[in-house]
Amino acid sequence: MKKKQLFHIGTFGKPIGLKGKIKIIMHNFEFNKFKSKSLSPYLVDEANVFWNFQYLKINNNKLTGKLEKCNSINCAEKLNGKRIFIDINHLPKNKKNQFYIFDLINCEVKTSKNILLGSIIDVDNFGAGDLLKIKKDINKSFYIPMNEDNVVKVDLKKKLVIVNPVKGILN
CA within 20 to 30 Å of 116's CA: 11, 35, 94, 163, which one? Predict the structure, then answer.
């Protein structure tokens, strides 16, 4: 599978107990989407090693799981820190005005007055909502909140995001 087709959805954490149960750190992904049968098999660390989960559970906002054919702490310890990927073709369709981060990366950002601001290099969230990280030139980047007040239109086919940033963001 090509790297471009992969989506990093989580990372294995430390084992729990002796029978192969393991913590999973989710990355920008909802639990219900993560455990969807349509996503499996999961690719581990881009090494063309595929795994299926026997089960996934969430307790206190922490995800744990048990992989098929991983029945010991030794097996689970080998996975600690390894990244979990899925094929992007297996991702569920988004609802209106929802986007995957990889769809937004490299989109040009222009104001509603057609002034080029730069291109999206990442989407961060520090707790108060998603922020488009826009690279203006080699040494300068800035954030625009991804909300109705600032983002006017997203056209993924044209790889274009139109914004009307509230006063003070661009200064």
Answer: 94
